[in-house]
Every structure is written in C-alpha cells, then in structure tokens.
Amino acid sequence: MPMEPNEIVLGTLLGACRMHNDVDLARAVCKHLFELAPSDPGNFSLLSNIYAQAGDWVNVASVRWQMKSTGSQKPSGASSIEVEEEVHEFTAFDQSHPKSDDIYRMIDRLVKDIRQV
C-alpha cells in the first residue's frame, strides 16, 4: 500500500482472513492492529474466532486470556423479537425473560423454515 493502513483497513483485512481461513495473515494483521487499537475487544474476538475455526484451542485460550488481562470485553450482541405485538430484547442464551421459552421455540421454527427454503 502507498500509505500506512489504519484500523479500518486492518480490521477489514482481519475479517477477510476469517472468511478465507488465513490464520498466518490474521496473526500478522493483528500484530499491527493491536498496536493501533490495543483494547478493541472486537479485534481480539475476531482473532479468537479465527483460531477456533482452525481448531487451535491453545491460541484461542491465549487470546481470551489477553482480553481478560487488558480489561477489554466484547459486549454481548442483542436481538429483538416481537411476541404478541410487544417487542422484547435479549442476548444470547438469555433465559431471564418470562416468555423466553416461547421466543426460543419461535426462533427454532424460523430456522427450520429458512432451511427448508
């Protein structure tokens, strides 16, 4: 590149590494990315997922330990669903909502319908 890549360029490249299962390039990209954004939890999480996809559980644990030691934690993603004309928000594996059983049954049904299509 004619200029130094910024966080966005490197983050995009890291995403491509995951899509193409390129662990070696991901490791090299993260070396630079962690210098630019040392506490961005998304970058750690993506690298951890790349290692997991490759079955490299030692490095998965190492990246997660690194996240913990730097105090960076990726917030859980939230989803919304409408049940009986009321919108409810929840995070992955959240069972605290009084209608969580209904919500998960509906999600399972939607997944089955989508797979059939």
From TrEMBL:
Name of the protein this chain belongs to: Pentatricopeptide repeat-containing protein
Give the organism, scientific name: Stylosanthes scabra
Instruction: Tell me the gene name.
Output: PCMPE27_2
